[in-house]
Amino acid sequence: MGRRTVFAAVCAVAVASIYAAQPVLAQIGEDLRVPDAGLGWIVAAGQLGYLAGLAVLVPLGDLVDRRKLIAAHLLLTAIGAALAAAATETWLLLAGLVLAGLFAVVVQTTVAYAAALSTPEERGRTLGAVTSGVVIGILGARVAAGALAELWGWRSVYLALAVLLVALAGLVLKTMPPDPRTGRTTYGQVLTSLGGLFREPLLLSRGLIAFFLFASFGALWSGLSLPLAAAPWHLSTAQIGLFGLVGLAGALGAARAGRWADRGHASLVTGGALVLLAVSWLAVGQPSLWLLALGVLVLDFAVQAVHVSNQHLLTAAHPDRTSSVIGGYMIFYSLGSALGAAVTTTAFAAAGWTGSSVLGAAFAGCAFAVWFTAECRARRRSAGSARPSSGERNPAGCR
């Protein structure tokens, strides 16, 4: 249990370094004189760094001692966070966030290491605990960041992250067993294997769903602080951060999606959750805090339900290459998150929160279209067979 807690803490703090800016964007913009239309790039910078890390750093986990690799990446993430905390110019802040995002892919290495250290009987519980750390880091960071920024300003958020990351690096080295490697696989071979996965229909379809899914997710969380800080609500950064608790409740409620997927309903869960995602934007776009909170709750539930279902299908299809297939899938996730973060503030500057809500709903509609098209193709390919090739009992209601 102590080992699971350390792994979950590593994931929570590392992923928080990417999302901590979201509730304090207005404060950062005021301090560094960044216009509203450009604030989205502050969040997108970390996502773009994360994208690069997924492609070039995650494969290292198959080649070197993961205990040392995790500690090194935590320290380098801390350097990025410290650079962001000290930034007096926008370009320096962006450089720090890109660096932090690049090495925040330590999350993926940690997940793989946790799975490797677990017995088959406990692997599911271990991965569940580690994944909960990721969810807590993404959504809980908003609450903590809002509270810290209210007391000591937005720079204190990144300073606190840097301190926590350094402490966790030492804890990993002290408490985790060595992870020696004796294989002869080269870095080039691992990258080639990862590249081959992008030609497979299952990864492409689930990846595109994730792309639009997290673009919609990013459109909400990267733009939400702007209307909440403005008239008529004028909420403080601490109050804005509390919306993370609403999102956290919704996301953790989606944990049951994994059980539904185990019973062969991953595709139905995906389709239903994508409908909920689109509908949630009707509440999010209303001029009522209660409706907005309800919309956030439903939206985060839908996003995590789809995310869990996607990963279930991919790992079931590639049980011998789970790290590679999840790494490839997360590239789509990172691209979508960066897109949503970058364009939602532009839409807000042009058409207010209504514009951002329409954008988020459009992304949800695109994700549903990809899911429906992919499931119809799977139904046609599996026509005449007893078991669909996608591994689903009920692919889609298409003819």
How would you describe the overall organization of this protein?
The chain has 399 residues and is an all-alpha fold. The chain is 77% helix and 0% strand. Mean pLDDT is 84; it is low at 388-393. The chain crosses the membrane at residues 39-58, 70-87, 93-115, 127-149, 155-173, 203-221, 233-254, 266-284, 290-309, 330-351, 357-374.
Topology:
Elements: H1 2-19, H2 25-32, H3 40-56, H4 66-86, H5 90-103, H6 106-117, H7 123-152, H8 155-175, H9 187-197, H10 201-221, H11 225-229, H12 237-241, H13 243-253, H14 256-262, H15 266-284, H16 289-317, H17 322-381
Task: Fill in the keyword field for this structure.
MFS, signal, mainly alpha, transmembrane, globular, 399 residues, transmembrane helix, single chain, membrane
What coarse outline follows from CA principal-axis ratios? globular
Largest sheet: none
Number of strands: 0
What is the structural class?
mainly alpha
Gap from first CA to last CA? 48 Å
Oligomer: single chain
Mean pLDDT: 84
Radius of gyration: 20 Å
Number of helices: 17
Percent of residues in beta strands?
under 5%
Estimate percent helicity. Answer: over 70%
Order of helices and strands: HHHHHHHHHHHHHHHHH
Low-confidence stretches: 388-393
Organism: Amycolatopsis silviterrae
InterPro entries: MFS, MFS_dom, MFS_trans_sf
Subcellular location: Cell membrane
Membrane topology: Multi-pass membrane protein
